[in-house]
Amino acid sequence: MPETTPAPCAPEDVRRIACIGAGVIGGGWVAHFLARGYGVTAWDPAADAEEKLRRLVAAAWPALEQTGLAEGASPDRLTLAPTLAGAVADADFVQESAPENLELKRSLLAELAAATRPGVVIASSTSGYPMTDMQTAVEGPGRLVVGHPFNPPYLIPLVEVVGGERTDRDAVAWASRFYDLAGKSVITMDRELPGFIANRLQEALWREALHMVANGEASVGDIDASITEGPGLRWAFMGPCLTFALAGGEGGMAHMLDHFGPSLKSPWTRLAAPELDRELRDAMVDGCAEAADGRTYADLVAERDQGVIDVLRATGRLGSTRR
Amino acid sequence: MPETTPAPCAPEDVRRIACIGAGVIGGGWVAHFLARGYGVTAWDPAADAEEKLRRLVAAAWPALEQTGLAEGASPDRLTLAPTLAGAVADADFVQESAPENLELKRSLLAELAAATRPGVVIASSTSGYPMTDMQTAVEGPGRLVVGHPFNPPYLIPLVEVVGGERTDRDAVAWASRFYDLAGKSVITMDRELPGFIANRLQEALWREALHMVANGEASVGDIDASITEGPGLRWAFMGPCLTFALAGGEGGMAHMLDHFGPSLKSPWTRLAAPELDRELRDAMVDGCAEAADGRTYADLVAERDQGVIDVLRATGRLGSTRR
């Protein structure tokens, strides 16, 4: 990746953010940035965009008050701009959340780059397009990154940050640092992967769910309950790798893979399994050891158990068998 | 399925449970049943089984005290039997949790059925084998069911109940009713599906995770963080279908499928996508409407937001960006 033009301000000095597109995701970003004390200028071509956006922010605000507002945070610091150029004119950062359409994103990002002050980082909320494919029509594509959030962006911490082939390395670092300061939990990826990380994982699950419904094997209700009453309780605080490591008992991921590895070849799911060769096995085992970071099996079990109890209690399910 | 011989006692009258196999899952069942006030007799051929099992129960007990113990519940109501036949002799219900090996399960279930009083229901914890494939060697296979738990069985509510081709319909109903009384959240399946429901879903995700690690696309730590900081927070209380319905905004699942449906064909995950035809689309939309059960989009958004806040607070992540 090429080196960069310096951004016009440090991530610490961002004051005004332009949010382009004010649907579910764009509007969620608006609510998040407002709650974190930024001034926000939004633009959306829809006729009823302002009304819908202010309704979304108002609906989210009580939740945001619970999470703790930044000093000076207020829904009143939202301005709707009549034009795209007006929205980005004085922005220190731009978050684009247009509909998921590659051609639309390409031309919109080109238009944004032309209207935004030199060096200001422009992030796309795309849920899957690689930036390399979106930055093709942009003059000065170095400051374009993906900043992929999860719904609702004002509550779910994760944002995946990755650049395209023509993105400056510094722009990726700037965006990661900015999101971190803005209260997000950042995963910075060093290579492009369609769907990034979390969406690939949840898409795999989602496709299997669609197959089951298509074949009459399970209802939507059963699918949802199988997650919320089962693995979903653990995944709120312990990821699938470390969770499965615990399924190996005191033998951890190594025992888990050696014991359940052959099941990978079972006709579970329509997804072809990768070859569980020595290299992959060791990568999983080492990765889990690193994730455990010195915690013993007993430590992790105690932590998981307390986590499940806390989540059950928090979601009103302690003492009853169903929510 | 054939009709049945009546069980020797109603699900309400179960007093003593035999747990066969005392590893991570079998031991977890022991802890669960003890906490619910049952007497438990365990059997496991391993030399150090008793020591390990009592350690597991002791480690789980503080967590179980927090969830609320049944009257008279005590770790002292656990007995280790020297023989399999001795373990099941006076059992009102049998939970088999042997290693995941089809031949082993076949012969063990045959042995169990021969030693257990007529009509007593025998459930297998298998994480994926259909009962039809396991009950081949059993005399009187009508009382054999799958009762598939999640780790740890003493905290994760879900149990998936399903019979094989030779299982009596009444045995399935008996087991579902019993698990419900024993504090589990039951999904009763009316057809066999290798991996049942939740395991198929989490296996799809797991295989995609293994592909990513195998190809150097993401680290174990990134994969885990992408779930716990992202979709996992929602899945603790709202399943993937209803969660995705909210991604469609006020247009719900219908808008979501119409908008993101084409993305199914994107090269996300290695799992081939099903054809999103009218029938599947309508099944998803109708299923979500049923799951919403009269709650409006605004109701569901408020519920989700409160849920995420509660889960973040419960897992110590409110007010900080990382755990």
Automatic annotation (TrEMBL), chains A, B:
Molecular function GO terms recorded: NAD+ binding; oxidoreductase activity, acting on the CH-OH group of donors, NAD or NADP as acceptor
Domain of life where this protein originates: Bacteria
Pfam families, per database record: 3HCDH (PF00725), 3HCDH_N (PF02737)
Domain annotation 3-hydroxyacyl-CoA dehydrogenase NAD binding: ranges: 17-189
The UniProt record lists the keyword Oxidoreductase: yes
GO terms under biological process: fatty acid metabolic process
Pathway involvement of the protein, from the record: Lipid metabolism; butanoate metabolism
Keyword vocabulary terms for this entry: Oxidoreductase
Domain 3-hydroxyacyl-CoA dehydrogenase C-terminal: start-end pairs: 195-263
Family indicated by similarity: Belongs to the 3-hydroxyacyl-CoA dehydrogenase family.
PANTHER family for the chain: 3-HYDROXYACYL-COA DEHYDROGENASE FAMILY PROTEIN (PTHR48075), 3-HYDROXYBUTYRYL-COA DEHYDROGENASE (PTHR48075:SF5)
Name this polypeptide is given: 3-hydroxyacyl-CoA dehydrogenase NAD-binding domain-containing protein
Natural source organism: Streptomyces caniferus
